[in-house]
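Below is how a single chain appears once it has passed through the pipeline. First comes the sequence as given, then the structure the pipeline wrote out for it. We keep one example in the README because the format questions we get most often are answered faster by looking than by reading.
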Amino acid sequence: MSILEYSSPTSFFLNVDHFNCMTTSIEIYFCKDCNFSTEWTILFKKHAKRHKNPSNEDCTTIQKYICEKCGFKTHFSLVWLKHSQNCSKNKKTWYKCDQCKNQYRYETGLRRHKASKHSIHEIIWYECENCPYKAKEKRYLKRHINSHHFDDQNMELFRCMLCSYKAKFNSTLSSHVMTRHLTKQNIKWHECQKCPYKTKRSSNLKQHINSRHLDGQDIKWYECDTCSYKAKQKRCLKSHIITHHLDERDIKWYECQKCPYKAKLKTTLRDHAIARHLDEENIRWYECDKCSFKTKAKSNLKQHVNARHLDEKDIKWYECKECPYKAKQRANLRSHVKARHLNKLN
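Resulting structure:
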């Protein structure tokens, strides 16, 4: 297995699926000639060159690149350039679909949307030779094969320079660096216009809006072909199918390397590993900023905040269709329906 070191700052703001980093320690570089320090090797090397030039009076100052539209600051010219190209305050043109309410920043996105959702021509599917997976675009099939069917021993992996994390895709590593190692002033936050929610990923903001703020008629539901289940997110439908409807022979099991445990979903195995096998010093705790509660799972923190600290007006209630019962968590509503109304519904 070969390892590639990642060093391209231009990919910091790509938004893709990610994995948890198993350490929070960051190496700090200290200058032996002055009190300058930094976590970035590229900045440290840049600073060291300043000592060789006697004309530099203040060697502890490093140039910052500032966005004129929103005030975003960075030490990297390429990060500044990438940010400037995508700064929401600098973007005026949106490409709107003439057949639905979708809109895109780039014309290529609109073309893909129309070809996928509104084309009158028969869809050309790209099918995987190893499993039932199929995709409308060749790039998605390629990514699927690399993720699920490529032998890790023959694959070049991208390694994080700040911790032991490594990834199959450069873009996945970029997301890891952005979420785990960027300082707060260098993070580009994606903020909801209707509530205080903010996130480091535009994809998370989109999911939040779909889940919390869209009217029922505007939601695009992903429906199961086998039962009445439907979801607002495609990945949730995929997890449902794998968990409830996939034939045992077609399931790709994710096995724990430290015990006999195995899971149908990679995320379930990851949660198991964090809960059961991670050393105490390597656990990343998710802490509540309003009380002493902390947890190993981000989803548990979200449930805690919703249950304990959210204002009544901000709570999204899950209401039972058969009685006045309502719950703050969908799982509680499901348990209620099974316990109280399942016989009636059947």
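The mean pLDDT is 75.

See the next section for the split statistics.
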